[in-house]
Write a structure and sequence with these properties.
The complex is a heterodimer of chains A (117) and B (116).
Chain A (H helix, E strand, L loop, with lengths): L2 E4 L4 E4 L4 E3 L1 E4 L5 E7 L5 E7 L5 E4 L2 E4 L9 E3 L8 E8 L12 E2 L3 E6 L1
Chain B lengths: L3 E4 L2 E4 L5 E7 L6 E7 L5 E8 L5 E2 L8 E7 L2 E6 L8 E8 L7 E3 L3 E5 L1
The chains are: A mainly beta (117), B mainly beta (116).
């Protein structure tokens, strides 16, 4: 079945440091890939997405590129802020990005990011 | 603003009590909603898929009689934890499938359930 593997945390960085959180996946076909962020005590928010190979998703300074050859979707940010402290989840789903047929989400285990001033 | 509202945000109750959690889609009709459980510092575990007007589909290992799901309207799904015990204490999150296809699901803010 489908699976998502994230780098283990927690990750602790100083403000303005470079961030990479690795994510690799196993799936048949052509899944869509996502990064979600969860702030303390809250639900999940979609951070960015990519629906086909070589697509780059970006939002709030975060980026991730859908690499089919390496089955990866690593999250990066050039300069993190204290407000970026949260848990980050990589996820995939099947379905047509342009339609309404997204299937179930498969999540990675989550990576806790703490950014210090 | 939030498109999925989950209520209550926190519940503390005695062992043996049944607890109902509501999940509402605010600006779209959701034929499909999902219920997740999240343990501390762990990922989300899908418990069940809630389909409007029909029975929920439970994931393997989830007790149907323990976690009752009702999806009686296109904007509301409820999860009832029956006769809750301390081991049921957890963070429960609902989501609703986005009918417009912009993203897979919109998530509620979760319910922290603590059983004493």
């Amino acid at each position: 079945g489908d699976s998502v593997t994230q780098m283990e945390g927690p990750v602790t960085l100083s403000e303005e440091a470079f961030l990479t959180i690795n994510c690799t996946y196993t799936a048949t076909g052509y899944p869509s890939l996502f990064w979600y962020v969860q702030y303390p005590g809250e639900g999940l928010q979609l951070l960015l997405k990519a629906t086909k190979a070589d697509d780059k998703g970006s939002n709030k300074g975060f980026e991730a590129t859908y690499r089919k050859e390496t089955t990866s979707f690593h999250l990066e940010k050039g300069s993190v802020q204290v407000s970026d402290s949260a848990v980050y989840f990589c996820a995939l789903t099947r379905g047509d990005a342009g339609g309404t047929s997204y299937g179930k989400l498969t999540f990675g285990q989550g990576t806790i990011l703490t950014v210090h001033p | 603003g939030a498109v999925v509202s989950q209520h209550p945000s926190r519940v503390i109750c005695k062992s043996g009590t049944s607890v109902k959690i509501e999940c509402r889609s605010l600006d779209f009709q959701a034929t499909t909603m999902f219920w997740y459980r999240q343990f501390p510092k762990q990922s989300l575990m899908l418990m069940a898929t809630s389909n409007e007007g029909s029975k929920a589909t439970y994931e393997q290992g989830v007790e149907k009689d323990k976690f009752l799901i009702n999806h009686a309207s296109l904007t509301l799904s409820t999860l009832t934890v029956t006769s809750a015990h301390p081991e049921d204490s957890s963070f429960y999150i609902c989501s609703a499938r986005d009918p417009r296809g912009n993203q897979p699901q919109h998530f509620g803010d979760g319910t922290r359930l603590s059983i004493l």
